Amino acid sequence: MAPVTIRNMQLTEMSELKIQWANQRDFHTLLRRSDAEDKPVLLDLHSPECSGCVTNDRTIYSDPEIACTVMEHTFPVRVVTTDPDRASTDIINNHIYIWSPTIQLLAPDQTRYHEWNGAPRRTRLSVGYQSVFHDTPGHLTPETFKAQFLVARAKAALRTKKYGTAISLFDDAIARYPRDRVTVEEATRWRKAALSGGFIESTWDRHHQVTTSPLAAAVERFAQTVAVLPDSVLMQDWIGKPGAGDWQWYSDCLREVVLQAYQELCDFAVTAERERARHGPQFNDTHRLLGQHRFAYREFQSLFVGVPDALLDRTPLRSERSIRENLAHMVMAEWWAYRPQILHALDRGRKGLPPEVVPASDTVAQHGEPPGSHESLHELLALYERLHLCNTRDFSHISEDELGIRSAWWELGPVELRFRLERYIWHPRDHAVSIDKILDASGHRHTANHRFAARLFSGLGTAEATLIGADGFLTDRLDSLTAAINDRANEAAQLLGQVTDIKPGIG
Q1: What is the arithmetic mean of pLDDT over 205-221?
Q2: What mean pLDDT comes out for the span 248-264?
Q3: 20 pLDDT exceeds 80?
Q4: Quick one: which of 50, 242, 381, 394 could link to 210 by a disulfide (CB 3.0–4.6 Å)?
Q5: Which helix (H) or strand (E) holds 431?
Q6: To the nearest 10°, the Cα dihedral for 472, 478, 483, 489?
Q7: CA–CA gap between residue 382 and residue 222 (Å, rounded)
Q8: H helix or E strand, kind and range, residue 104
Q9: Contact 170, 191 (CB under 8 A)
Q10: pTM for the whole thing?
């Protein structure tokens, strides 16, 4: 495939140029060439049944400027997703992560430099998902494609440490497409990294919180402060006040104080369960299921304590996704998948109507494109927090009888809402394992203090689970617990100040 240079072409030649698509049989050969020639692969996952894919051919890939730049800067490969052969299926399953943009710029190791926002999305072909595809047509135009193509090439240059080239391409994208919000935001974010020689600032720490309730914010602040303390102070004499009551005998060091706060959160849960049983509002099975999910969610959240943003896009495990892709998928799954399917099934069940799948195009029309291309860790976690709490509030009104309503989705037959919520519970458990593997493979080792900080999130999940469906319950006790944990967070911050004074650079 000979290179094409736009500036050396005549206008008539340029207007006649077509993209010369390779196919699935050429894919791995072109990946090897990509490595040798330092030229990425443009993967287009195409279906003639997808209206967005057909529109792309008519309006985007037929654009002479786009055809020229694609041919000059990439190896373009088209894989047809309709009735695919085995080679196509292997590529599709590796590059469609449940429900992914179908235009991607790939590195030689098949990891993604960029996925086009607004491109058609398609469901993967693995077992189970073959029964329903959830296609969306996307909303790409030639101009938005060109804008993102500049960003995609810049991200490839950034990954391969060609910082000057990356900066120039990011600047070009911002200058040429100033009204394209996504392009400008993404180019600005990654340009900053290129200017600093690849350094990516960490964004989720004790100064940047993601939780919103007073209790959760207190726990988060305490946990984040504990996490940046060196393990050497774990058994050091505690600088704060002793615990109340019998805890006075167990407040000698940081380790004991953290465990005290954990136990106070668990004790609150015992009190809340007892008081709800006596005075209401009564627990039902929906509240219990959502409580299990809250606990799983807080433990999932604890994985990110002390994780730098620089690890978000690392891909140390071949053919596996990055932390960003796992986290963005979690946000998408809760808001763009579980939420519409559960609420739609509930609405139809209450009206006595049979189960029906919500088209993915309806979800995108209502909620917009899922996140994931350039957001910081703080932004992703803060978004997840808001959406998760909203789901919990809205799902908590499902009665026990309504848990038997049938819900249709990708399975071969409808399932009960009870099962749907159970699947909702173990989904964060599943991806927590994936993220833990990536962290381990990236060489990121949690310290003892990180692990103790994670226990605080477990305690938070235990306490919060008992309050689901009971807004405004035990307010005085909750305020007292929040104040106690804030006091511990202040003492830990004081200890951090002392340690930092003694050992510059820590924390």
Answers
A1: 94
A2: 94
A3: yes
A4: 381
A5: helix 417-441
A6: -110
A7: 18
A8: strand 103-106
A9: yes
A10: 0.91
DSSP 466: T
Identify which of 113-127, 232-246, 266-280, 308-322 has the greatest average pLDDT. 266-280
**Could you tell me if 311 and 440 are in contact, meaning their C-beta atoms sit under 8 angstroms apart?**
no
Q: Which helix (H) or strand (E) holds 106?
A: strand 103-106
- Residue 184's nearest CA partner among 174, 176, 194, 175 is 174
Tokens of 80: 């047809």
Query: Is the Cβ–Cβ distance between 314 and 367 less than 8 Å?
Result: no
Give 450-478 pLDDT, tens digit per residue. Answer: 999 999 999 999 999 999 999 999 999 99
Identity at 208, one-letter amino acid code: H
Asked whether the beta carbons of 102 and 92 are under 8 A apart, the reply is no
DSSP state of 127: T
Q: Are 272 and 278 in contact (CB under 8 A)?
A: no
Alpha helices in 160-243 (DSSP H): 163-176, 181-195, 214-228
32 and 107 Cβ atoms separated by less than 8 Å? no
Sequence-ordered list of residues with C-beta below 8 angstroms from that of 467, at least 6 positions apart, any chain: 272, 473, 474, 478
- Residue 187: other Cβ atoms inside 10 A: 29
Cβ atoms 204, 381 nearer than 8 A: yes
Closest CA to 212 of 395, 392, 426: 392
CA distance 226 to 219: 10
Please state at what angle helix 254-279 crosses helix 475-502, rounded to 10 degrees.
Answer: 170
Backbone angles phi, psi at 100, to 5 degrees: -125, 160
240/280 Cα distance (integer angstroms): 37
What are the residue ranges of helices labelled H in 42-141? 51-55, 64-73, 86-95
